[in-house]
Amino acid sequence: MTHPRTAITGGTGFVGRHLAERLGPEASVVISRRTGVDTSDVDALTRAFEGCDVVAHCAGINREIGDQTYQRVHIEGTANVIEAAKRAGVRKVIMLSFLRARPDCGSPYHESKWAAEELIRDSGLDYTILKAGMIYGRGDHLIDHLSHTVQTLPVFATVGFREKPIRPIPIDDLTDILVAAIDGRMPRETVAVVGAEPLLLSKAVRRVASVLGRRVVVVPWPVWAQFALAQVTEWTMKVPLVAKAQVRMLAEGVTDAAPPAASVPDDLLPRRMFTAEQIRESLPEAGGLGGRTCGSAGELRAQSPSETCTGSNWKGPVHWPKIPVRSTATGISNSSSTRARVPSTTTSRNVCTEPSPKTPGPRYGASCGTVHSPPSWSTPAGSQSAPKHAVTSADSGGAGSNWTTAGPLYR
Fold this sequence. Notes:
Blueprint lengths: L5 E4 L4 H10 L4 E4 L10 H8 L4 E4 L12 H19 L3 E7 L9 H14 L4 E7 L2 E2 L5 H11 L2 E3 L11 E2 H12 L6 E5 L7 H11 L5 E3 L3 H14 L7 H9 L9 E2 L12 H7 L115 H4 L10
Parallel strand pairs: 1-2, 1-3, 3-4, 4-5, 5-9, 6-8, 7-10, 9-11
């Protein structure tokens, strides 16, 4: 089936990447700061949207870092997307929001997501807003973090003495819904998207541990202690153990939309349970979290020569002699043939070879009609270096891809 040509903001993040792969290179245009297009630049967005019928707005953050604030990314970024869509003649905007985004609740994350929803609804364009809960799949924050946690420090701290349930959504199910909206379904609707199975996060942790053949100790923790931990780790870690917004989400539970919203059509309801099979399909490479700190959270990828990586999640000079990396988006592996030894300095840079041209999935392009392969990254002995794309958490693909789990989770 041929789908309308779709521009995907946050297109190099978790959800955006899966959507682009589903649509294919002929029907998708990946937009992110890595491809040279920032949602703060209306003119650049307009050029990128030209020739597109639909915009899937998946860009978002779950914590504020530097100039990447909720106001700038969620509210101003959405306003810019709407303006650029109108200039470029885009007929529909699809927004990936959060299940419990709402006004006047005391959480800047929730309130900014709601404000963005309101901008979409008032835009005059056709739209579909997906209020999604927790999303999981290969390269996510849920199983990625849990699997590495139980292999590094198998202790999990709950959010509150009485946990609230979650309903995890498989990325394939969410992608089905996004594609249906792209194809014209759910016009001018705001719909809730939740997984088929309600369960406690601690139960999800035990299932992941069981698949890995590990045992995990679950420790009850009060909500206030998780908020305190979140504040400390946001101050001291590049990728926090847990963000304050995430503590709020998990303390409330992630099963029902707030305010209430219609469900997706029956034939699009997620039906896959959080089973051992689904967990296995979503597992990253085995190992702990210590050396995987390059790049936006929840994403395994190669580091470009324009970025700095210390091999540590802490905001300080920690030296590692070698940093293995792997990109599930491009097929770059961390095998001995593509792994680079780097000096033990805080300004170490990984280098890697260009992925095979047989790698499936879309290539990254900055504008409609222009689809480029990822740049060739050189080894220390040779040639061309990668372009200096800024990589920020705004590229991580919207609310669903920005989930981490509470408890002792390390990157």
